[in-house]
From TrEMBL, chain A:
It comes from Haloactinopolyspora alba. Residues 1-26 are annotated as: Disordered. This is Carbohydrate ABC transporter membrane protein 2 (CUT1 family). Keywords: Membrane, Transmembrane, Transmembrane helix, Transport. The lineage of its organism: Bacteria, Bacillati, Actinomycetota, Actinomycetes, Jiangellales. It is found in: Cell membrane; Membrane.
From TrEMBL, chain B:
Belongs to the binding-protein-dependent transport system permease family. Keywords: Cell membrane, Membrane, Transmembrane, Transmembrane helix, Transport. GO terms for biological process: transmembrane transport. This is Carbohydrate ABC transporter membrane protein 1 (CUT1 family). Its main location: membrane. The chain crosses the membrane at residues 12-30, 71-93, 105-125, 159-184, 205-225, 263-286. It is found in: Cell membrane. The keyword Ion transport does not apply. One of its GO terms (cellular component) is plasma membrane. PANTHER family: ABC TRANSPORTER PERMEASE PROTEIN (PTHR30193:SF42). It is a multi-pass membrane protein. It comes from Haloactinopolyspora alba.
Length: 295, 295
């Protein structure tokens, strides 16, 4: 009975005794499927609708009775206030996220190559120990981390966060590259070895040229997670020197609930990662897959 | 000996910087953190060890116990919700749907947004006012004739934490869908055909062929959602704020202890969080490690 739902795309099964009912039933099932998909689609879009609509409402129009309605006039004051509050932080976030993603991607690529294709004794153990760093709650290292960064005189704000994103990004970058390099044919590496090339030569001339897709996945992943980070940011920066998540939280949690500005701010703060998601979606999903440990 | 050095030296050197960084920042600091949790450290100043006093105080503190209870409920709700929607969406999409790309993109997009940004809109949606002053979801429910479903969302002392799981499920279900979709597509068509040839009913096909093939995906999904869930912090800070009682979890308790300068208590909470995560992650990593070695 429920079978028709998943049967759509398979070659037609042997005709049943009453083809008419069967066909009708299949059509009903397909309609139900698309209806369900559409309902879920609209459900998922509700918060996006609210963000967009509310960001254009003036303070006077942010009344409960008009909560779900379109604005009567499209007011941009909220966007202006949000931009004033967030624009300095946006620049700082780019200055933090881009270099830190590149550094951890480069280190991750080297680790991934060694762990997948130029293995040494206990390589799997080292890999597993590194991987653990990806799962720990950072609260378990936070207090000594605060003391360490103060002790080393690393300035709070972007410099501290740069160090942290590089270090704690290493496990996932290593994982993604390791899985990626595991798909590079062993023969190519062997051939290079037989030709007498050392490890660095093999890495630089055989492996690196093949690495572009791996780098795209890792950079997107690191960009997104560093951009969206709030935990390290709240411990190591403030609204004057921190990334955009801190400024947004500051803007949104003010005593006076300025909904149009905070919703506009949420959209501004999400814009870069959403663009990355829309433009490079295929690789974004690739990163999500590699993030699931199983190679 | 020289031969060995020649052979294993370069790969070990290449991985050394990352290994040292992770060794210090993960394992070293976990140790220091545990050590701190055994002292009476206030803002970096300590007079000595107090044994397990910080832990016994925490476990006899009603608010902390309540935060652990909240964490357990949140984790169950988050897991159940994301697995349900993730599987359902993947199942609906797995056999050629027209416009699949659009559905997939929309279902997955919340993943690209930070918890802080989505918290801004969910705070508005989960507004606890009812009746005439209702806005957000309560107002929406009223408008579509479901007014009896209005509730106080995250401000309820018993069930409030469920309300925080709603945005979390909204945000991560698409990820789980992507995992399951990849799992479905990894099942060889011949396997389904063979089962059908043998006259297996659709239910038996799922029971004996498809579910077993999907179980590694389900395990990955549980690990990913589970470890994220145990660290929940950003969402609560953005929706309810750090001082709200009904949404306390260990991570907010840790942040409060830190802002009060009670470093040793904060360190103890961090260690407890690590143990909770480790109970889940370590068996998984050990399992993967063994599988890897036996390859």
């Amino acid at each position: 009975m429920t079978t028709q739902l998943v049967d759509d795309a398979t070659p037609a099964p042997p005709r049943s005794a009453r083809p008419d009912t069967s066909r009708r039933r299949r059509r009903t099932a397909r309609t139900a499927k698309y209806l369900l998909l559409l309902v879920f689609l609209m459900g998922v879009m509700i918060p996006a609708y609210v963000l967009f609509v509310t960001s254009f409402k003036s303070l006077g129009e942010a009344t409960p009775t008009r909560a779900w309605a379109l604005p009567t006039e499209w007011y941009t004051g909220g966007w202006e206030r949000a931009w004033d509050a967030l624009s300095p932080a946006l620049g700082r976030t780019f200055a933090l996220v881009i270099p830190s993603s590149i550094v951890s991607a480069v280190l991750g690529s080297m680790n991934g190559f060694v762990l997948a294709r130029w293995r040494f004794p206990y390589a799997d153990l080292v890999f597993t120990l590194m991987l653990f760093g990806m799962f720990i709650p950072y609260q378990a290292v936070m207090i000594p981390l605060v003391e360490l960064m103060q002790g080393l005189n690393v300035p709070s704000g972007i410099p501290s966060l740069f160090v942290l994103h590089v270090v704690f990004g290493l496990p996932i970058c290593t994982l993604i590259f390791r899985n990626y390099y595991a798909s590079v044919p062993e023969d190519m590496i062997e051939a290079s070895r037989v030709d007498g090339a050392g490890m660095l030569r093999t890495y630089a001339s055989i492996v690196l040229p093949l690495s572009a897709p791996g780098f795209v996945v890792v950079l997107i992943w690191q960009f997104t997670s560093a951009w969206n980070d709030f935990l390290f940011a709240i411990f190591f920066s403030n609204a004057q020197n921190g990334p955009v998540t801190i400024s947004l939280n500051f803007l949104a949690s003010g005593q006076l609930q300025d909904y149009s500005a905070s919703m506009a701010g949420a959209l501004i703060a999400s814009f870069p990662t959403l663009i990355v998601y829309i433009v490079l979606g295929r690789w974004f999903i690739g990163g999500l897959m590699s993030g699931s440990v199983k190679s | 000996m020289r031969n060995k050095l020649h052979r294993w030296g370069p790969p070990i050197l290449l991985i050394a910087p990352s290994a040292v960084l992770i060794g210090v920042f993960v394992y070293g600091l976990i140790g220091v953190n545990f050590n701190t949790s055994l002292t009476d450290n206030i803002r970096g100043q300590t007079t000595g060890y107090v044994g397990l006093e910080n832990y016994t105080t925490l476990f006899s503190d009603d608010t902390f116990m309540y935060s652990l209870r909240n964490l357990a409920i949140y984790t169950l709700a988050f897991l159940a919700g994301t697995l349900f929607f993730g599987f359902l969406w993947a199942w609906l999409l797995e056999r050629g749907v027209r416009g699949e790309g659009i559905f997939r993109t929309v279902y997955l997009f919340p993943m690209a947004v930070s918890f802080v940004a989505s918290g801004v809109v969910w705070r508005w949606l989960l507004n606890s006012n009812t009746g005439d002053s209702a806005s957000g979801l309560n107002r929406g429910l009223d408008m579509i004739g479901l007014g009896f479903l209005q509730n106080s969302w995250w401000t309820d002392e018993t069930w409030g934490i469920f309300a925080i799981a709603v945005p979390a499920i909204w945000q991560l279900s698409g990820y789980i869908m992507a995992l399951f979709l990849a799992g479905f597509r990894g099942i060889p068509e011949e396997l389904r055909e063979a089962a059908r040839m043998d006259g297996a009913s659709e239910w038996k096909l799922y029971r004996h062929v498809i579910f077993p093939q999907l179980s590694p995906v389900a395990l990955s999904a549980i690990i990913i959602i589970g470890h994220m869930s145990l660290k929940v912090f950003d969402l609560i800070m953005a929706i309810a704020g750090q001082t709200n009682y009904t949404t306390q979890v260990p991570a907010t308790q840790m942040w409060i202890a830190f802002t009060r300068g009670e470093y040793s208590v904060a360190a103890a909470i961090g260690t407890i969080m690590l143990l909770v995560v480790a109970v889940m992650i370590v068996p998984y990593l050990v399992h993967n490690y063994r599988a890897e070695r036996n390859r």
